[in-house]
Amino acid sequence: MREYKNEIPQHLAIIMDGNGRWAKNKGKNRLFGHTKGVKAVQEVVEECAVLKIKYLTLYAFSTENWNRPEEEIGVLMKLLLSSLKSEFEKLLKNRIKLNVIGNTDQLPMSVQKELDYVIKQTENNSEMTLTLALSYGGREEIESAIKQLAVKVKNNIISPEKIDQSIINEHLYTRDLPDVDLLIRTSGEKRISNFLLWQIAYAELYFSKVLWPDFRKKHLHKAITNYQKRERRFGKTSEQLLQ
Ligand code: IPE
Ligand code: IPE
Ligand code: MG
To answer: Which of 4, 19, 81, 146 is within CB 3.0–4.6 Å of 33 for a Cys-Cys bond?
Structure first.
């Protein structure tokens, strides 16, 4: 029997958690942790491209994170803006396409403009799709899909009987992405925190104790190796998979 049952995940999603605790452990304030978290993002994006992961989705800011102190939100938005600017050339060089999911109208105008620009400039890149979940909530996403469908039903564009899982999929922010294969959460927390609720129906879950600013290539490799050893049965029996 092969040791590895699975290939490299086609779609990897990561809940990047633990910046605040990382800083606190060092006697620094939370904002310092966010600044240091950027390095981990850079390393993981680069390594995913090297590993030929086709879709990488990063949870960077949730709908619930709007409830954080204003100063912290401001720092996160500033870091996002500066990273979009500083990483732009690297995205072009590595042929990475940028994508965003979430209620982006709520983001500061400067961030929206930079996102639009980078998305447009990288739209023909095909090595990897890097999706940032920004002002993203899984329930909000499903709510928005239901609203769009309800309007279509009301205007006789679609009949209720026609609504199936693939049509629901087409109304989600992730319409262009395949289902998640592997979901990693750092920092030891074992929860989903409203991330990709629909899309993780059959994802493999991996929880790492490492706090996000410390997350490096070797931790990513460990998660992927662990994933590759799992048997994904999708409801079938092991025996059926051998046929
Ligand atoms: C993750 O780190 C970054 C964001 C949620 C934006 P946290 O800021 O949640 O760090 P902890 O969980 O408080 O340590
Ligand atoms: C989830 O982390 C959101 C992001 C990583 C962007 P949180 O730190 O906000 O999640 P909870 O509040 O601990 O569940
Ligand atoms: Mg957290």
So the answer is: 19
For ligand 1, atom 3: residue with the closest CA: 17
Residue partners of 158: CB distance under 8 A and separation at least 6: 149, 152, 167
Tokens representing 65 are 């994170």
Nearest bound ligand to the CA of residue 59 = 2
Tell me, yes or no, if 124 is annotated catalytic: no
User: What is the enclosing helix (H) or strand (E) of 154?
Assistant: helix 138-154
Determine if ligand 1 sits within 6 Å of the CB of residue 122. no
CA separation for the pair 67, 184 (Å, rounded): 24
Does residue 19 line the site of ligand 1, with CB under 6 A?
A: yes
CA-nearest residue for atom 11, ligand 2, is 193
Up-side HSE of residue 194: CA atoms within 13 Å toward CB?
18
pTM for the structure as a whole? 0.97
Of 6, 29, 65, 103, which is the active-site residue? 65
11-137+178-231: CATH architecture:
3-Layer(aba) Sandwich (3.40)
Residues 31-82 have pLDDT tens digits of 999 999 999 999 999 999 999 999 999 999 999 999 999 999 999 999 999 9
Among the bound ligands, name the one nearest to the CA of residue 61. Answer: 2
Residue pair 23/33 in contact by the 8 Å Cβ criterion: yes
Go through 56-79 and write b for each residue having 16 or more CB atoms within 10 A of its CB, e for each that does not. Answer: bbbbbbbbebeebeeeeeebbbbb
The answer to whether the CB of 175 falls within 8 A of the CB of 169 is: yes
Residues 6+ apart with CB under 8 A from 96: 45, 49, 90, 122, 125, 127, 128, 129, 130
**125, two tokens:** 């890149």
